[in-house]
Amino acid sequence: MTQDHTTAPDAAPASPAPWRPARTVAVILAGGTGTRLGLGIPKQLLKIAGKPIIEHTLAVFEAAPEIDEIIVLMATGHVDDARRIVADAGFRKVTKVIEGGETRNDTTRIALDAVGEGDVNILFHDAVRPLVSARIVRECVNALWTYSAVDVAIPSADTIIQVDADDCITDIPVRSRLRRGQTPQAFRSGTIREAYRRAEGDPDFAATDDCGVVLRYLPGTPIKVIDGSDENIKVTHPVDVHLADKLFQLAAAQAPRLTDHRSYAEELTGRTIVVFGGSYGIGHDLAELARGYGAQVFPFSRSTTGTHVERAEDVAAALKTAFEATGRIDHVVVTAGILEKGALAEMDSETMDRLLHVNFVGPVTIARQSLPYLQQTKGQLLLYTSSSYTRGRARYALYSATKAALVNLTQALADEWAEFGVRVNCVNPERTATPMRTRAFGEEPEHTLLSSEAVAQASLDVLISDLTGQVVDVRRSPGEQVAAVPAQPGPHRSELSADA
């Protein structure tokens, strides 16, 4: 796709003036109406991972140090919706939210008018590509120091065929030279303006993307192609919604990790964390880790404080204790859970009730009781699921079912509580060495289990992040060794969180 700029053999090499843009502007193209998704709202307003798609997209450019300004071209009739999203999210770089045009040609012209005159870097990006990476944005801007037009693309994994009007193959291009285009597309302002100026004289002009306009009307202009990513998908069809949601889930596993003790201390000193199920395992390790960084931590459990998570009065008393002691509650963590093995048909009513109440009614009760406190601090509720939530497991069907329910609860509450500024996430550890797991499954090879300390650290990273609505996978690092964890004495129940 990159063209070679050729000159006559005896021509002197060109010496253009150095490119010195006044600023770099990201233009977010949000004119789609969502007809292919069958929605009553534009697809860019559809919520994924707790936020509208366009908010995820804007957040990437807001955070990019290479971007100075953001302009949003919104679908007709929905400008106010976009403005509310910008205001609520506090995006400081967004200077204009205006209506786009009826066609792609019109929209680009409106965007160029909105950018104004002068030498400017311009990046055009689809609002419904919310998983664009900071790396792609950076490389696009950097490439504009050398090239006046830049595209983003990935190799085609599929063989591309060309067909005629009867859907018969006429050609099979060499796949190694083919790419699938993405956005952003980046330009020096003078280049894209000149391409559109020339296009105005063509009665057959109809743009599908802006690099195509440069390719057609400014032949000989090199268009640099940088590597996109498989994750940078465009949400166009119903299946894309589910794919994007899963990709956000995978991305969440990379919750930002701070570099040193001092950084964690700066984040956590003065915060109040309430841990339900904080006696052993992950809950205990998280409490100890957070205390070491200066947080005020209040662990509650059935065994140490007599707190039953399924009892509203017990939960209320625990939260009141923490609030009265510190005047705030920033984070509520629910690691409490029990795992009882056995065929459902053979399980007695008392065991079933205990499983359902501790594993699901408990987190629901804690969520309801915690909201008033978390609203005050714009805090976070953190729940725990298990890999069994993706597919129910024989002989612990109710455990699997309650863990799947917690995932849905996380996503639903993240949506409901977004207006309050309260975040909700769910940690999904792989098989973890905890007393509960040892009691249920016996001794297992050490190298196959994740340490509870590692899950606690990842949980802390999620608490101090801006994530919401995410299921955060925590996986064992290659070569990590953990010690076997002895089962705690007592009945076959535990207030511990463990993947099973």
TrEMBL record:
Q: Site (Transition state stabilizer): which residue positions? A: 36, 43
In Pfam terms, one family for this protein is IspD
Q: Where is this region: Disordered?
A: 480-500
What InterPro entries does this protein's entry cite?
CDP-ribitol_syn (IPR012115), IspD (IPR001228), IspD/TarI (IPR034683), IspD/TarI_cytidylyltransf_bact (IPR050088), NAD(P)-bd_dom_sf (IPR036291), Nucleotide-diphossugar_trans (IPR029044), Sc_DH/Rdtase_CS (IPR020904), SDR_fam (IPR002347)
Q: Which UniProt keywords apply?
A: Isoprene biosynthesis, Nucleotidyltransferase, Transferase
| GO terms (BP aspect) | isopentenyl diphosphate biosynthetic process, methylerythritol 4-phosphate pathway
Which chemical reaction does it catalyze? Answer: 2-C-methyl-D-erythritol 4-phosphate + CTP + H(+) = 4-CDP-2-C-methyl-D-erythritol + diphosphate
Q: What top-tier enzyme class does this entry carry?
A: transferase
Site (Positions MEP for the nucleophilic attack): give the residues. Answer: 175, 234
Quote the pathway field: Isoprenoid biosynthesis; isopentenyl diphosphate biosynthesis via DXP pathway; isopentenyl diphosphate from 1-deoxy-D-xylulose 5-phosphate: step 2/6
Superkingdom, natural source? Bacteria
What's one GO MF term for it?
2-C-methyl-D-erythritol 4-phosphate cytidylyltransferase activity
What does this chain do?
A: Catalyzes the formation of 4-diphosphocytidyl-2-C-methyl-D-erythritol from CTP and 2-C-methyl-D-erythritol 4-phosphate (MEP).
The name on file for this protein is: 2-C-methyl-D-erythritol 4-phosphate cytidylyltransferase
Q: What is the lineage of its organism?
A: Bacteria, Bacillati, Actinomycetota, Actinomycetes, Micromonosporales
